[in-house]
Design brief:
Blueprint lengths: L4 E12 L2 E13 L4 E5 L6 H8 L7 E6 L2 E2 L5 H11 E5 L10 H6 L11 H14 L15 H13 L5 E5 L7 H16 L3 E5 L3 H4 L4 E6 L2 E7 L6 H17 L2
Helix pairs in contact: 4-5, 5-6, 6-8
Length: 253
């Protein structure tokens, strides 16, 4: 089977007045189905630009990008939008939920923009299934203001899953969350990955990257390290540690 993601000598150059900014320089990357990769790097390293390329939100200045065997560079704007909707799921640092719309209705939104017509009953069933996957089926009729930050992020993950994407892209998904909630959300990602979903995550937090299986580190637009994580953190174990620490803290009060 071909790689889900294949980047060949990808460059991205921005014109900033009389200066050219080389945001990404000659990146080659292959991502197989079922991988869970973190992209890391300092500000200006090119990680966000690379994520935008993977998400078909930005075209490379040079090089070739194959997504599930399809040459993205050969697609027009409408074809690219259709591919993005069908093949990719997005989770952002800001949850981007519609405030006056229930959790279930937020999850249903991507199905409204696809090529295939989906009946109201199928939309409901698929949204409820995805909410069940992330453990929020019982809060389907709650509005975002009635949900915690971690619950809102889980709704956003369910929304990203509803069109059954080939790749789930997460951009700093724990950036607005506390440590305990971050571990809970990483537990959701790990369970999804265990089910065979391919995940790429941008993060600047090393402890979050340790929950992934593979760490890609960028500097000045280049990949400087691409390693398998030898001692992967398991969210369930980390959550138990946090609970033990909370219990110990209460006993000493």
């Amino acid at each position: 089977m071909p790689a889900v993601v294949q980047l060949e000598d990808i460059h991205k150059i921005y014109d900033s007045g009389e200066v050219q900014v080389h945001a990404v320089r000659g990146v080659n990357l292959q991502l197989e189905k079922g991988e869970f990769m973190a992209i890391m790097g300092a500000s200006g390293s090119g990680k966000s630009t690379l994520m935008n390329t993977l998400g078909c939100l930005d075209r490379p200045s040079k090089g070739r990008y194959l997504l599930d065997g399809v040459d993205v560079s050969a697609l027009g704007r409408n074809e690219l939008a259709d591919l993005r909707n069908a093949k990719l799921g997005f989770v952002f640092q800001g949850f981007n939920l519609l405030s006056r719309t229930t959790a279930r209705e937020n999850v249903e939104l991507p199905m409204l923009y696809g090529n295939r017509r989906v009946s109201a009953s199928e939309m409901h069933d698929r949204a409820m299934h995805c909410l069940e996957i992330v453990g929020l089926a019982q809060r389907a009729d709650h509005f975002p203001s009635q949900l915690s930050g971690g619950q809102q992020q889980r709704v956003a993950i369910a929304r990203a899953l509803v069109n059954q994407p080939q790749v789930l892209l997460a951009d700093e998904p724990t950036g607005n969350l506390d440590s305990k909630t971050s571990v809970e959300v990483m537990g959701v990602f790990q369970k999804l990955n265990d089910q065979g979903i391919t995940i790429v995550m941008v993060t600047h937090e090393l402890d979050i990257a340790h929950f992934c299986k593979r760490n890609l580190i960028m500097r000045d637009g280049r990949v400087v390290s691409d390693i398998q994580v030898p001692d992967r953190s398991i969210a369930e174990v980390e959550m138990n540690k946090l609970k033990e620490a909370e219990t110990a803290a209460k006993l000493t009060e």
